[in-house]
Amino acid sequence: MTITLLELGFILVKVIVIVVLMLLTVAYMTLAERRVSAWIQDRKGPNRVGPAGLFQPIADGLKFFFKEDIIPAHVDRFFYLIAPIIMLVPALLTFAIVPFGDQFSTYIGDQLVTFRFQIADLNVGILYFVSIASLGVYGLFFAGYSSNNKYSMLGGLRSSAQMISYEIPMGLSIVAVILMSGTLRLQDIVFDQYQLWNIFRQPLGFLIFLVAAFAETNRLPFDLPEAEQELVGGYHTEYSSMKFAMYFLAEYANLITSSAIITTLFLGGWHVPFGILEALNLPIIAEQIVQILSFAVKTGFIMFLYLWVRWTLPRFRYDQLMNIGWKKLLPLALLNIVVTALVIAIF
Amino acid sequence: MLVLTLFFIFAGIAVMGGILVVSFRNPIYCAFALVVTLFALAGEYILLMAHFIAIVHIAVYAGAIMVLFLFVVMLLNIRTEERASGGVRYMIYIAIPMTAVLFFELAYLTFKGFEKAYVRDTDLGTVERIGEALFSQYVLPFEIASIVLIVAMIGALYLSKRRLAIGE
């Protein structure tokens, strides 16, 4: 395997662009959350800072920086300081395998160079997402433990139980997709959906994955780890300033990544529906841009769905949460695998 | 050269983590050190082109087993390990020489078989190759392992439910 300097440069550019774009999207997701919630509840929402409140995230960010950074005296300092980092790093790492555009090869000078619109095209593909995403729970866990506070502790305990429970149906719903495409590589899974998106071939799998993804990102109706009315603030009760902001960043980064993964697995990734792209007959660069836009629009829709659900549904009780995870989603996911495997074996 | 440098970095982290696992008194710190060791080992697997093993290693050990372990530690609220009492305290004088002997045995065998240990094939660790091997050459051991796991699961379930029945 030889990597030319040009390809290495392209990878570096991709990494920087994606991380910057993700952090920007996170900032504007906070604004979107507040505006959408206001819209759903028939309020106005933040609209004073800049045109239509567009500079609100910048103001919020500055405020976070200037807040006093308090480390309470009763905390376990090592874990208290490392927990927000452990939370944020996996959230940003998982986006590395998402293919956000097709690949194309071109001659530069006399050298064939392939440009992939994906940071890492791993052989283990989707397994990487499953395993790295499951590490975020350590952040919640250590935050709950180190804060030395009963509310934080309860939040940490709840979150770990919840994330372990919902990882299983999530993984099993992915298995059905893998059975259909016969590969773990995300780029190949996207190619496999050229004719028909997986949401139509795997409607049950899509629903299970969606519910499990909501639970994994700790979003309502599964936000028990930080249920304000019961736990004050949950695992991040004792955090302030930028350390608190890092939990926020991680939550929204997780949301973006799981939206992107849902798009890739079930909504055809960067494919443009109804053969519009073929009909337009664009030059290759424009075609790539249209595909990346298509991916962005689909991911944006799923992100909107997250907000929509959050401000529409109430929170589950803890026993309801466990019942849904273990007694409903898990058998359904197993059934989905069996049916999918049977259909593949017969036809 | 890069691979060798990375090998020593990961090996150093793994050994340090291993020492910390046994030297910390607080079980949460021990668990954290063990997770660090597991990551360093996953790094070594990637250097050996065994991507699948590396990622499954992280998913199963770091992502599931250690989380469950921490969950139990937190649920029981164990703050520090209690000092061993009675005869167990003197076990250390047997344990250290035995560990030393075991270590030298392992080191001797590893250095003897050093020539055989290098990676011959670069796509050996891919999902396709492991799947083929598991479902053709090693299908019987694979199925036996799954049966053993199911038996263990049913046993655990039975034991926990029996305790419940007595309590009621």
List the helices and strands and how they pair.
The complex is a heterodimer of chains A (347) and B (168).
Chain A: H1 5-40, H2 56-66, H3 77-93, E1 104-108, E2 111-115, H4 126-133, H5 136-146, H6 150-181, H7 186-192, H8 198-201, H9 203-216, H10 228-231, H11 241-266, H12 276-280, H13 284-310, H14 318-346
Antiparallel strand pairs in A: 1-2
Chain B: H1 2-23, H2 27-47, H3 51-76, H4 92-112, H5 127-135, H6 139-167
Architecture overview:
The complex is a heterodimer of chains A (347) and B (168). Chain A has 347 residues and is mostly helical. Chain A is built from 14 helices and two strands; from the N terminus they run H-H-H-E-E-H-H-H-H-H-H-H-H-H-H-H. Chain A has one domain. In chain A, 67% of the residues lie in helices and 3% in strands. In chain A, strand 1 and strand 2 form a beta hairpin. Chain B has a single domain, classed as Four Helix Bundle (Hemerythrin (Met), subunit A). In chain B, helix 1 runs antiparallel to helix 2. The model of chain B has no long low-confidence stretch (mean pLDDT 82). In chain B, 76% of the residues lie in helices and 0% in strands. With 168 residues, chain B is an all-alpha fold. The chains are: A mainly alpha (347), B mainly alpha (168). At the A-B interface, helix 4, helix 5 and helix 6 of A face helix 2 and helix 3 of B.
Order of helices and strands of chain B: HHHHHH
Number of strands of chain A: 2
Order of helices and strands of chain A: HHHEEHHHHHHHHHHH
Main β sheet profile of chain A: 2 strands, antiparallel
Number of helices of chain A: 14
Shape of chain A: globular
CATH class of chain B: Mainly Alpha
Class by alpha and beta content of chain A: mainly alpha
Strand content of the residues of chain B, in percent?
A: under 5%
Radius of gyration of chain B, Cα only, in angstroms?
A: 20 Å
Structural class of chain B: mainly alpha
What is the helix content of chain B? over 70%
Overall shape of chain B: it is: globular
Instruction: State the major sheet of chain B.
Output: none
Mean pLDDT level of chain B: 82
Oligomer: heterodimer
The end-to-end span of chain B amounts to: 65 Å
Tell me the name of the CATH homologous superfamily of chain B. Answer: NADH-ubiquinone/plastoquinone oxidoreductase chain 6, subunit NuoJ
CATH structural architecture of chain B? Up-down Bundle
